[in-house]
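sry for the spam today, last one i promise. struct tokens for design, 450 residues
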């Protein structure tokens, strides 16, 4: 923070739900109401003490504050008993922070997306209840005692595992991000959505626990000479099947039953899902019921006609699974309103499907000048990395951007660089630098800078 600047900036959070045209005008209204309410509360407190309001009434909060002077019930009374909530839930005051569907994005909600509210999470772990959801044919809460995993194909001993069989095997726990290949897809052509929840909320990061796929493949006696690929299949009605190259399958892929210290949530594949670090979410097959070992790709529907990248010349690319380095500032971000000039902590998330984040640079002037952000530890491979940087807002217009670089040397591109190669008709793998415009009245909005 620069010396001499004492005041910390405060902001109004973005409205938590999807913005209609009317909602889009709400931050300005909220700001006016907030300023009026704060000023009148402070003035009333001062009047009670026989004092008059100084020029900046907001600066006097604390003196004669009834929230300090009057002891509340929680200081003088007996609190709630233990285990009143046998499964703990967030405070009632946090109930606005929810994953949310984007109305009209898909025709039915069973084949849709609920986005993670990235603007309201801290650190690198996404709370399980806020992990994004993407289902092709709805979700199920499957009875684990009846769930089976079949391993077959080019193996000496094909096997059927129960959940008990799997949970007795040696396990690992690893923190990884999962990002749907379609994250930020709506922004290929132009600005489409107002908040970071909808522009980037198809990504989450959790600690996953399970058995390395290599252990299961060895257990079944994989034919290493003939095998080239494995096919993963889910038990839901979407016939979700994806081919995974054998070297990857034997590397860091996990057959997972745990997420953030407990069993997977039903929406995220309970009781068993595949974790394919660094690869787009569609390969993380949920409700996993079958692994087949083969000698070539299967060209399944979700890898030959869906999840392909249409190129400008009309050809399309298949099997482009890796999620390249990407980052986004989560606060201040679209829909929020800065209330004062002064100090702000710009904070955000960076991730790369190729490894660790090496560096994140921040611009507050639309990419003319860059400063290097502080990366918070831990910095893990194929996981979220949290970054922060100090900023003193002078009350003028600003454009906030973050640019990630991973340990392969890859640098997150600008949107026009991405369009020059990929055109504008693509859906997947949109990892361009995100720009948030701060207007001189403090309102933050989604813009594209070329
Ligand atoms: N697996 C099955 N069986 N059915 C599905 O619909 N959706 C895929 C993948 N695995 C899907 C699936 C897609 S497109 C994504 S992005 C991720 O799951 C989303 O995982 P999540 O819902 O846990 O966030």
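last one done:
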């Amino acid at each position: 923070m620069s010396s001499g600047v004492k005041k910390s900036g405060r902001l109004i959070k973005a409205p938590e739900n999807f913005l209609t045209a009317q909602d889009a005008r709400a931050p300005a209204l909220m700001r006016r109401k907030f300023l009026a309410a704060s000023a009148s509360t402070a003035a009333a407190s001062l009047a009670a003490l026989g004092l008059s309001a100084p020029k900046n009434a907001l600066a006097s909060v604390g003196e004669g504050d009834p929230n300090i002077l009057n002891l509340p019930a929680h200081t003088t009374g007996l609190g709630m008993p233990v285990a009143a909530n046998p499964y703990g839930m967030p405070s009632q005051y946090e109930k606005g922070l929810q994953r949310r569907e984007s109305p009209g994005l898909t025709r039915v909600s069973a084949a849709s997306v609920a986005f993670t509210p990235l603007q309201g999470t801290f650190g690198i772990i996404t709370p399980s209840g806020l992990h994004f959801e993407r289902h092709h044919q709805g979700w199920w809460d499957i009875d684990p005692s009846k769930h089976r995993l079949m391993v077959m194909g080019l193996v000496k001993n094909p096997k059927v595992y129960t959940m008990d069989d799997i949970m007795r095997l040696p396990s690992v726990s690893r923190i990884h991000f999962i990002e749907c290949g379609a994250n930020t897809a709506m922004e290929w052509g132009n600005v489409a959505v107002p908040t970071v929840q909808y522009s980037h909320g198809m990504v989450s990061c959790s600690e996953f626990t399970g058995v390395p796929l290599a252990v299961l493949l060895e257990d079944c006696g994989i034919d290493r000479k003939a095998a080239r690929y494995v096919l993963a299949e889910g038990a839901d009605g979407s016939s979700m099947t994806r081919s995974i190259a054998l070297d990857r399958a034997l590397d860091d892929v996990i057959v997972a039953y745990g997420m953030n210290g407990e069993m997977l949530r039903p929406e995220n594949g309970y009781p068993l899902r595949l974790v394919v670090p660094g690869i787009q979410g569609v390969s993380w097959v949920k409700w996993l019921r079958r692994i087949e070992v083969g000698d070539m790709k299967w060209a399944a529907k979700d890898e030959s006609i869906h999840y392909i990248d249409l190129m400008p010349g009309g050809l399309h690319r298949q099997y482009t699974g890796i999620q390249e380095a990407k980052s986004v500032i989560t606060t201040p971000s679209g829909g929020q309103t800065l209330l004062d000039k002064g100090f702000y902590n710009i904070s955000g998330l960076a991730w790369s499907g190729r490894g660790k984040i090496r560096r994140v640079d921040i611009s507050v002037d639309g990419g003319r000048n860059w400063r290097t952000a502080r990366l918070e530890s831990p910095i893990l491979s194929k996981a979220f990395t949290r970054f922060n940087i100090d900023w003193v807002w002078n009350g003028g217009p600003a454009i906030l951007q973050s640019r990630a670089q991973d340990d392969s040397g890859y640098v997150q591109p600008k949107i026009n660089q991405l369009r020059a190669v990929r055109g504008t008709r693509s859906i997947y793998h949109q990892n361009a630098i995100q720009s948030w415009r701060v207007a001189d009245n403090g309102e933050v909005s989604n813009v594209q800078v070329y």
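Residues 131-136, 178, 180, 234, 236, 238, 240, 267-269, 281-282, 284-287 surround MTE (CB under 6 Å). ok im logging off now
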